[in-house]
Fold this protein.
Amino acid sequence: MRDAEIAATVTFILNGSAAEAAPRPGETLSETLRERLGARDVKIGCNAGDCGACTVLLDGAPVCACLVPTQQAGGRRVETAAGLTRDDPHGRSLAERFQDHGAAQCGICTPGMITAAVALLRETPAPDAAMVEEALGGVLCRCTGYRKIIDAVTGAPAALSGTGRVGDAIRRTDGAAKVSGAEAYGDDVAPQGTLELRIVRSPHAHAGFVFGDLDAWAAARPGIAAVLTAADVPGENRFGVIPGFIDQPVFAETRARFRGEAVAAIVATPEAAADFDPGDFPVRWEPLDALATPAEAEAPGAVLLHPERPGNLMCGGRVACGDAGAALSRADATVEGRFLTGFVEHAYIEPEAGFARVVDGRVEIHACTQAPVMDLEAMAAILGVGRDRIRILPTAVGGGFGSKLDISVQPYLALGALKTGREVRIAYSRTESMQSTTKRHPAEMHVRIGAMADGRLSGLVFEGVFNTGAHSSWGPTVANRVPVHASGPYRVADYRAETRGIFTHNPPAGAFRGFGVPQAAIAQEVLFDELAERLGIDPLEFRILNALENGAPTVCGQVFAQGVGIRACLEALRPAWARERASVAEFNAGAAATGSALCRGVGIGAGWYGCGNTSIPNPSTIRAGITAEGTVVLHQGAMDIGQGANTVISQIFAEALGLPVAAVRRLGPDTDLTPDAGKTSASRQTFVSGNAARLCGASLRAAVLRAANAGAGAGMALDAGTLAVREGGRTVQIALAGLPTDAHGYVFAAEETYDPPTQPLDENGQGVPYAQYGYAAHLAVVEVDRALGTTRALHFTAAHDLGRAINPMLVEGQIHGGIAQGLGMALMEEYLPGRTENLHDYLIPTIGDMPPVTTIIIEEPDAHGPFGAKGLGEHVLIPTAPALLNAIGHATGLRLRRVPVTPAALAAALKGAAS
Amino acid sequence: MPYLQSRSLDEALAELSAAPLAVVAGGTDFFPAERMRQRSRAILDISRTEGLRGIARVPGGWRIGATSTWSEVARADLPPAFDGLRAAARQVGALQIQTSGTVGGNLCNASPAADGMPPLLTLEAEVELASAAGRRRLPLDRFVTGVRRTDLGPGELVVALHLPEPPEGAGAAFVKLGSRKYLVISIAMAAALVTLRGGRIATARIAVGACSPVARPLPALAGALVGLTPAEALALPADPERFMAGLRPIDDVRGSASYRLDVAHALCLRAVAEAARGAADA
């Protein structure tokens, strides 16, 4: 044997124990750990060293396991999150602190974060924030905004409070598995050795195609179990999310309409799948001219993406009140601008993944999703079977932000499992995740706003064209939501907002945190600063003067008697506004004196967001029961994608029931076990499912109190199979074991549904689109380097009216994370098909880009929300980008009209202004 | 498809001369590229090959073994003239990449945005290559010849970098510009190595990366700075035709060509000023 030949097996120490594996040549440590040694606490986000999720310690030093040939681990020590949080004192401590701070939201990056942090703490037991940033700079997080992670690693005091009643800042009830890496995401559930899917995708934005002899191709290749194409779809080869707009094929049939669209798939053994080269697949492409922009797609004679949609118009939206034209004519000052935004990628660290099998003739789909019951409906149509033939078992979700509302891997998994009769899995590569799943809509917005000399708004006209890509997805929602929100949270008596959603040969644009509202807020809020300046009015006071109030109609004519909290949010920024403006003025004077290229600015942005579906039914149902053994079981089908629904719904339910949250055992999500709690979108889970949980808790409580013949004020305690109901001096002991059980096995049970009271909008968008809105205002401080065009955010102050903070720790986490995404949208993120299809060309903020945030919670109770609570998930991102643009404008005097404001873009603008 | 791992350099070179093999050291560039290729290849792993690793003082200068990692460079006990190289080492990707990624791999990958190139150019590095047929040395700017192109011959490995003794009392710096703080491919970057005499720049070497197919020294700019104080140097007006001759920046997703040319000047001057702070005044 030659010296160079290596033994077939590699041995190393894995988390303190001997491990042995026989990797194939070219196999990396991440694959060996996950697929041969069962260490699925090592998560895969990008497989390219761009995200750090797979960080493990190799002889104590952090490495990306996806970049280490397994053979290089031979004879060395490998430590992963599971071992470190079990055996290492730093790891154990970090596991507690991450939970105390809410530093794990979806949790997919958490094992990488904790692993990298252990390496730091072993060298530096008491690091400062800057050291933490250096040590964790190689791990991306898309949920938390990083600040809670920094707090957890430095050991800052946590602000936990209470036992889990409404208003208590308790740990997540599902946090332990996230910090140890035990949480099972889409790619963590399949048994080792399962057949794998690979999808053949269009390399062209627009192309015709024909297949060669697929049977012969497959027959000639060992390990190929099946080939799937449109011909294998037994039901409808279409899916979508809005009735009337179900237009996306599972497999394109003769023509691919975006780069990355699926045309076929193979099901193969892991070995054959690893060697599969889509370039070998027998398909002949005929590239066609592609419509890249709405302008091209709306041009006369443009090819139609969907023949039934003339002009490539998906749909439009409109809201109008008063007479906007006349109001603008009489305004003392008007401003206008044309604003542009690009595609934004959700960039959750977990690519779409899942596993399917057939059990007793039913297909079971285990995959990451934000909307299990919508998945069920879509799959029933695609498979052409009844819903009872399908079971959706959502895995943990490693971030969603809107994109995982649409199905992705589910149909391929189901078709593969049904065709082969075997278990099948798939995890999208980062590139195919980015190519094929939805994006934020690029917008081209033309906006005019007027005001009178006293500062009162006088007319606002908004025209927006939204690039919806090749298929509808949630495009109609964007087209309809934007006109309702484009006024911002202000009194605008004379208003006209119109949108068009236009098909192009791009990836489908769909739902992304805010559904078009963040784009519209950029145009409106930036112009507000210009209008205030034109009038000589302080920009914050201008907003306060025009803020929407209780009793004043929205642009839809809706009047709220209570709960309009934008004025309180804006007023809460006054101290920071005064302080930061003064501090910035001082800095800039000093910088000017020394000839420094640095300058600073302060900016404000505000926003509002209607919670739930727009003017259509939007129910959630929650079921609960108490078993004869004395367990309180909550059937919780509202997907927790990291935002904290598992905890918030439990807190609300427990409060309404009158038992501690620790007594509640959560069940689900599972479409066989959990009733439909709707989708995790539109900031609706706390509000809508929270209300269902409140009603369900109250109903279950009422059933118990009836049995005890007690009044509504009675206290309740559960102890070892006995329910004690106390009222006055009297205690009734209910022995649960003796009671009859219902079909679900419960001795007491309840199931309640809540649907927000909305009303349809007329042709001018007048009506009641939402039962509640939440409100927000952000203040950003930035430093611009004029020589380089770089912008560094220094600090944020974020005021949010959410009615009632059910869990203030989770609230802060949402705010931080939303700001980080808003910062990315403002400064660095733009998805360009074919050019930024990975996480090193598509940049999201790292831990070094996100500054500290001061959070101000405003609680103007909502009339409908559970305990007055409002939604928050999307509000947190809407004001951020305009606040940053206004801060950059304050620093530089520039009127910015396009995001992202990359260093090159800002430098060009500075150069243009100077010449 | 074999996976070969060799302790002996001679053995590794013999394997390499016998069959085409993909050479892997840290894997940080190899695996992302390999996954795009969709085809596995026979691999020669040189991470444990003796004599290729380590940073050492040698007669006439310093030797950095090809498989020395960026973490090893960042932590090495080196004089201030290497501060630019160490700063670059701390900005290659992030810690995980620095733990695995090697100096030799960074050069062989031949990315226009290779962080190691500008400081190594200011240190006047030479590349030592070995094959079964023998050894040779050539200056760094003749080893990397273009975008993803090097002078590496069939059967050849990069063995080490040789850095001549830097000027007495020199300070050095590296400045990287990206759209975010960590894990970022440079839009542009500059390295400088400076000596001072009487508070003025006595000698200067400057190199710029990500603004041409291969990072380039800027001798005209360096020459123009001689005799200036560091503060005067910071204020030197841009003169792209004179100072940036040889740069050929491109437009890409990270920035436009004209932007790169503009910022290159500012980055060079900042690197020079920072290098001067680390220099011992003679």
Remarks:
- Chain A has 24 helices and 31 strands.
- The first strand of chain A starts at residue 10 and ends at 14.
- Chain A touches chain B through 67 residues (CB under 8 Å).
- The two ends of chain A are 72 Å apart (CA to CA).
